[in-house]
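User: Please predict the structure of the protein below. I'd like the answer in structure-token form so I can feed it into my own downstream comparison script.

Assistant: Understood. Taking the following sequence of 358 residues as input:
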Amino acid sequence: MGHSVLVAMSGGVDSSVAACLLQEQGYEVLGSHMNLVHLDGVEHGCCGPSARADAAEVARIAGFAFEIADMSAEFEWSVIADFFAEHEAGRTPNPCARCNGEIKFGAFLRRADELGIDFVATGHYAVNVRDASGAWHLRRGADRAKDQTYMLHMLGQRELSRSLFPVGGMPKAETRAHAERFGLPVASKPDSQELCFAPAGDAGAFVRAHAASMIAPGGTVVDPDGTVLAEHDGTFAFTVGQRRGLGVAAGVPVYVAEIDPAANRVVVGPEELLARRGLEADRASWTSGEPPAGPFEADVRIRYKGDDAPAVIEPTDGGRTFNVTFRFPQRAVAPGQSAVIYRGDDLLGGGRILRSVR
């Protein structure tokens, strides 16, 4: 085929099979394990010592070239810094989506350009297709339970034209079957669910260890009337919709409804307090490069494993922001998370939830 591809290899089964399939199809493969954080000897998700060793072993078995690319500086200022800034603003950050946009399809694509490599590839469950007019579309993965398009909503025409998703069109079971066929030691390796920069996935402990200025003792947890129910040492430990770990003995279930970092206050209340009729989003991106003429109807997803909700979307500020009005009120719209827009299986775009609308 004559094409070269830089494959992001996390050490998991999906990216390992992606690399092997591409080599089998005739691509010249360079496997690349991104070193994103410096926690020597500590296991931390997709970029710890064992993950790095697994990726290198797959490359050795398959017989393609392999590198370790240090992208820790880019990760620090684009993902970690944003993670802290979002918490300081009282929002719940989405570092995995941020990493996909800034690192895996940002810095990693620039790495491919530096090396003169044609494409980049990942093990994401997503499908990109080109229509008769030459425009690229991003569609949900064939395995709806594993679909990862929510985390890829920031990809545009340039990224899609240079990206390959070899496992996107198959169910997870088939991916594992390919791993067995290739004789890969990661064939039965479980999926990583942790934040790669927070050992054991404890985001709160990471903030306490690396952003001491955000620790604010004397914060209050209050009910909707302002009655103090408990104290806390930082709003970063809470997210809208949270029920457990509130330190509140109310006798009935209560949920985080509002986070006010300026007042160091968290408002909790009954589940009905979580209902929202809409949201405002910024950091908007559109797969086609520009939003559909609005207002327009589509489905909106407000959390990675959530359901699609029918809504009316109105692009604003030249498409850099947008407003969403749900057909039916939605529960726990968390500022900082992503609002991702679909029409059928096609992803249209998305953005960061800036605030919810009652």
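That's the full token string. The CA atoms of residues 259 and 266 lie 5 Å apart.
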